[in-house]
Amino acid sequence: MKSRTLFVLMTAALTLLAGCAEIVQVGTAAGEGAGVLSPEDREIINRQAQSIAQAARPMTEKEEYYLGRGVAAAILGRYRLQADSRRNEYLNSIGRTIALSSDKPYVYGGYHFAVLDTDEVNAMACPGGLILISRGMLQRAGSEEEVAAIIAHEVGHVVNRDGVKAISAARWSQVVTSLGTDAAGRYGGKELADLTTLFEGSVTDVFKTIVVNGYSQEQEKTADENAMLYMRRAGYDPYGLPDFLARLAREQQGGDRRGFFSTHPGMTERLQLARSFLAAKAWRRTDHAARDQRFNAYRW
Amino acid sequence: MRKVFWLVLLGSLVTAAVAAAATFRVVTEEGAIRKDRKFFAPVVTRVPYGEVLQEQGRKGDWLMVSYKGRLGWIHKSAVQEQKVDWSSVSGGRAAETTRDEVALAGKGFTPEVEKSLRGKDPKMRYDLVNRVESYRLSDGQVENFIRAGNLREPGGEP
Predict the structure, then answer these.
(1) Looking at the predicted complex, does its ipTM rise above 0.90?
(2) Domain ranges, ordered by start, for chain B
(3) Of A83, A160, A226, B97, which shows the fewest CB atoms inside 10 Å?
(4) CATH of region B21-99
(5) Residues 6 or more apart from A87 whose CB is under 8 A from it?
(6) pLDDT mean by block of 10 residues, chain A; 300 residues
(7) Inter-chain residue contact B135 with A106, CB threshold 8 Å
(8) Secondary structure of A176-187 in HEC code, one letter for each residue
């Protein structure tokens, strides 16, 4: 076997073993420098390596950010934004405090929190850290601890990338395989149109899940548990979560099945799970007099 | 002669892997390198997305890094390690090791694709998304809020 053919085969084998485009590029550069590979051979191997790397790639942080902006743009096409700078600052202060105590304090575009001016009860975490909470939801909160609980639950969804997981595997597979190997900013008209359709579909997948269908019970349970963990780390009383769930459970038992109550069934079960979690951790209630006082100046 | 070539190639591959082990890239729009391992420590320098940082040390969730001659700490969630994990080669998780934000930065869901969708669907309220993103608080504002509410400084376990 000629050394050139052997080199190509070995480099391809290394690609499959390591799945590492970076290493292959080092190897092909060395091969070209040694006169074993032609520039064309190098290009073929590098393209092959890149497509293998892309085929199984997860969504990047930056893509998640753009997806989240799309989902938020769709939600804000349906709801009005509450313009109240004083309360916005208060909400974002609680949100930033919780986010810094989460497992992902930094996200590509930062965490941002806003109020939807509607009586409906809902809270939505867009991928990447844009969190939208309805006025109706915040009006039901009886303390800063309970507002922190709402936020911490949504931050839990962001950290777990639950929104991203709502995109159908088939659609993401198409996104990955439809991409050319050319450098940035060189999409052709058809390629951009196809990708825009896939982007639109992905936004719809996430929108449907967070606004219409809701997450799985397992995802909600994990977000609740993470919420209590983040609250405790931040110095909030983690019992703020079951306290708020208890309010919602009473309302749901009263027969309300709209909005949040349709996407979040089984509030009583969630309440029981949260109480069991806290009992297992043996965490006690903590004092929040200072925060109760300031909450009264902001309550929605 | 041929044997020497293969040895040199193997050596260069191993060297590349080792060299890559201590390199990180910033994966937030703007990373902050801080004086101490604290969220509200003074910012030594700010680093744009995709820039490469050299690891100088590690403690808990913080990495000591150098960037353009400046030394400081950055939180692990703001960076992505550019490391080749050889242990994953036989484990079938090789794709994880090749995830490189910057190599993929111009692909997939990009500002170009967002712009294309904006032109296609006027019901998408990106103007309001930009307004929400404009709600920003300084480190000092968050720190004061935490203190005034008898909350805990982030970064430590209770």
Answers:
(1) no
(2) 21-99, 106-158
(3) A83
(4) 2.30.30.40
(5) A115, A298, A300
(6) 50 42 42 49 44 57 96 97 96 98 97 96 96 97 98 98 91 78 60 91 94 90 97 98 95 76 82 97 95 95
(7) no
(8) HHHCCCCCCCCC
